[in-house]
Amino acid sequence: MTPVGRQSVASMILAGGRRLYGKSRIEFRESDPRCIDIGLINNMPDAALKATERQFRSLLRSAADSVIVRLTLYALPEVPRTEFGRRHVTGRFYSRIDDLWESHLDGLIMTGMEPRAANLKDEPYWGSLTRLVEWAEHNTHSTVWSCLAAHGAVLHIDGIGRRTLSDKRFGVFECARVSEHQLTAGAPSRLRMPHSRWNDLPEEALTSCGYRVLTRSDAAGVDAFVKQRKSLFVFFQGHPEYEAHTLMLEYRRDIRRFLLRERDTYPVMPQGYFDDATVEALTALRERALADRREEVLADFPTALAAGTVTNTWRTTATRVYRNWLLYLSAQRGARAAA
Questions:
Q1: Which H/E stretch holds residue 135?
Q2: Given this model, what pLDDT does residue 3 score?
Q3: In terms of Cα–Cα distance, which of 251, 239, 240 is closest to 307?
Q4: Which strand ranges, in their side-by-side order, compose the sheet holding 18-22?
Q5: Catalytic residue numbers?
Q6: Exposure of 199 in the CB half-sphere (CA atoms within 13 A)
Q7: What is the pLDDT at residue 50?
Q8: Model confidence over 315-330: pLDDT tens digits?
Q9: Residue 2: left if φ>0, alpha if ψ -120 to 50, beta else—which one?
Q10: What is the pLDDT of residues 66-93, one digit of tens each?
């Protein structure tokens, strides 16, 4: 833990749907097993910073039930940012990453980030990411690695490289539970989960190195998997934290990048997400964009139609998995306090 009494507004307390912003760890007793301390390292692009904060806060709040969670925000300083992004992650709602190295947390969540280099080891934040992997093993009960963070952690731990996909794996995919584990206890045998990534981890490479696959999809590959080290490492290639409209907004962003010639190809539509009427409207938009590649075409994006029909079909499962994770952290904290 960071020292008791440290004044900060970079954290908030979540419990059973309520939220309270806290200023000091003196607000609850170190020995109380109901109170768990979680860090969120938010490495998402500037435009998604606030949305990512909201998504994880909302999911943790829904999952908390009777568990009291204190969430503190961090960001890797080497992630490239605009002036807005730098101001946001160095402002009063974020703690410095240097403060993390001297602390202990019950749990840690590290988001992915937008890839820039073909080789993850060439990313400017690679040194901090690998330091986090080593720190998390010795200073958390469990850490969640999301998307590209999962790829980076696996590469550092076992040298498993990601493979580039022929096109973006994008949409909501039906996954099957393929292993019994306390994290998926109470979850349905088949579940839906959003994915948004250009790279994949080979299942055979993961299992040969001792990773335990929890959920997978014939269309999307491995979804969630774990490895027990000194800390329980949990990996998501999907995004259980996403809100109903997140994929829609991401698709709209990718279309805009195509129209601005920031990408060469028109983006693939998210699978298993839009209804037939929205698919028809978006197909027509694609034809217009290919024929008349101007940013003004984006005005025809059927935002109202799409927003009114997409639903969060994965939230119940996401809440269950994160509730199981919080209960695991609570139990580990209680066991440490009793030792």
A1: helix 126-139
A2: 33
A3: 251
A4: 18-22, 11-15, 68-74, 35-41, 107-110, 142-146, 232-236, 221-228, 212-217, 163-177, 190-200
A5: 147, 239, 241
A6: 24
A7: 96
A8: 999 999 999 999 999 9
A9: beta
A10: 889 999 999 999 999 999 999 999 988 9
Contact (CB, 8 A) for 38 and 107: yes
- Listed in sequence order, the residues at least 6 apart from 108 whose beta carbon sits closer than 8 Å to its beta carbon are 38, 39, 40, 41, 132, 136, 140, 142, 143, 144
The answer to whether 94 and 54 are in contact (CB under 8 A) is no
Where do we find the tokens 């639903």?
311
CA-to-CA dists, residue 332 to 141, 220, 318, 338, angstroms: 7, 33, 21, 10
Quick count: other Cβ atoms within 10 Å of Cβ 252?
19
- DSSP letter for each residue of 54-104: HHHHHHHHHHHTT-EEEEEEE--TTS---HHHHHHHTSTTS--HHHHHT--
Name the nearest CA neighbour of 17 among 81, 64, 74. Answer: 64
Strand partners, 87: none
Contact 227, 212 (CB under 8 A): yes
- The DSSP letter of residue 233 is E
What residues have CB less than 8 Å from 335, skipping those under 6 apart?
none
Residue position matching structure tokens 């500037």: 46
